[in-house]
Amino acid sequence: MTAQEIIRHLQLLPHPEGGYYRETYRSDATLPTAEGHTRSVSTAIYYLLENEDKSHFHRIKSDELWFFHQGQALEIVLLAPGQPIRLTLGPDFAAGELPQAVIPAGVWFAAQVKHRPGFALVSCTVAPGFDFADFELAERETLLREFPQAADVVERFTKA
């Protein structure tokens, strides 16, 4: 199937950070947050990036697991002290690609199809569950001040 066929078949919608998604699971079980709210224990989505689509730098307050399904390898970039950390989700384990990756809570990260053109279909699971109230899209100038050593990836994965 093409990316557009998958988007239609899975009923994916545009995501604010880039790409397409659809929530597929939200636990009925909840837990309290430090701010006095509640969150589902876990949530899951399908997520698809194609061609030049990017998941722009963002962070959330929960751990997020990414699982590769099909398509091209997906590059995930995490900002940390020192140099950015690069993970590749994909089917070629011999080339160092991974079938799943963990993004720790509070870490800035972004993603893009590694070899374009093409697409990558993944799933993401968040625990405690995802809530847009916990979602923060990065501002370029803020990240450049905090991570000057990563200026090239900050500029590539932030909106001007």
UniProtKB/TrEMBL annotation:
<dbReference type="InterPro" id="IPR014710">
    <property type="entry name" value="RmlC-like_jellyroll"/>
</dbReference>
<dbReference type="InterPro" id="IPR011051">
    <property type="entry name" value="RmlC_Cupin_sf"/>
</dbReference>
<feature type="domain" description="DUF985">
    <location>
        <begin position="4"/>
        <end position="138"/>
    </location>
</feature>
<dbReference type="Pfam" id="PF06172">
    <property type="entry name" value="Cupin_5"/>
</dbReference>
<dbReference type="InterPro" id="IPR039935">
    <property type="entry name" value="YML079W-like"/>
</dbReference>
<dbReference type="InterPro" id="IPR009327">
    <property type="entry name" value="Cupin_DUF985"/>
</dbReference>
<protein>
    <submittedName>
        <fullName>Cupin domain-containing protein</fullName>
    </submittedName>
</protein>
